[in-house]
Design brief:
Layout (H helix, E strand, L loop, with lengths): L16 H9 L7 H18 L3 E5 L4 E11 L3 H4 L3 E14 L2 E16 L5 E4 L2 E8 H11 L3 E5 L5 E5 L7 E9 L2 E11 L2 E4 L7 E4 L8 E8 L2 E8 L2 E4 L2 H11 L5 E3 L8
């Protein structure tokens, strides 16, 4: 059985391109109830088209695959009438970006609004991000930065640092926190066999640089869980051009049988 949130192949929520174009053009006069209804209809249509569906999204320099599980906003008509969408929640699972894999991700876009310009611009400020990473990603980062060391995140959510050449000698329990563009590993205890010795807080710190952080993103917190790592970050502001032709194209791509959404600039309608 196909989930109710997954669109049927070829389903056109507006029944015709002309109806969609007419609806979107009604937002040109922003302070009207018609504009609010148009924005709400567009949002609900996008939600129906993406929730529960596996997507492959193409950008200019990389691709992204994911399955959206939540896409929500309060959608107050009075706010929508002046181009204010408020806070928007997006949750996805099975995320793959470049050679990275994330079990789950969540984004809360605060104060989403349309900024009058040529073309129209969508703005959110700030954007809070949370990514759930498999422990293997942290383990790979440590082995690349410190080849003499290995780290593992156990089922109890504890990170243990070992000698790569002599893993049986024991381990050092470490706290993991984010500082700037690096993860800091701070030893808190030494363990050998069944014996555990707490360590002084002024022990040396092992910095591990984080790769490929998007410009402007600030990592705020790292939490260890059972065989996984939660990474929290904040983007002070996000914005994107959303001219009418691009909105139309996105909706019609999503309404097709294909699971590919092409957002590369070369594919944008003029």
């Amino acid at each position: 059985m196909v989930p109710r949130s997954v669109p049927r192949p070829g389903w056109d929520p507006f029944r015709s391109r002309e109806r969609l174009t007419s609806l979107l053009r009604s937002t040109a006069a922003p302070v009207t109830s018609g504009a609010g209804i148009a924005y709400r209809t567009l949002f609900l249509t996008l939600r129906r088209l993406v929730v529960g569906r596996g997507l492959k999204i193409r950008f200019d320099s990389h691709g992204l695959t994911l399955t959206v599980t939540e896409f929500d906003s309060r959608l107050d008509l009075r706010d929508l009438a002046v181009g204010q969408l408020g806070d928007v929640l997006v949750v996805a699972r099975d995320i793959r970006w470049a050679h990275y894999r994330f079990d789950q991700g969540m984004a809360v876009l605060h104060n989403v609004h349309l900024r009058p310009s040529a073309p129209t611009e969508m703005v959110a400020a700030p954007v809070e991000l949370t990514l759930k990473l498999p422990a293997e990603i942290l383990e790979d980062l440590v082995s690349q930065a410190q080849p003499r060391l290995t780290i593992e995140v156990g089922d109890d959510g504890t990170a243990r640092l070992r000698s790569a050449r002599h893993p049986g000698w024991g381990h050092v329990e470490v706290d993991v926190r984010a500082v700037g563009t690096a993860l800091w590993l701070t030893p808190r205890a030494l363990a050998a066999g069944r014996t555990r010795w707490p360590l002084h807080r002024k022990m040396p710190i092992y910095p591990i640089e984080l790769p490929d952080i998007p410009n402007g993103l600030v990592i705020t917190k790292v939490q260890l869980q059972s065989r996984s790592v939660l990474v929290h970050g904040v983007l002070p502001e996000w914005h994107a051009d959303v001219p009418l032709g691009r909105l139309e194209d996105i909706v019609f791509q999503l309404s097709s049988r294909s699971s590919v959404l092409n957002l590369a600039r070369s594919a944008w309608p003029g």
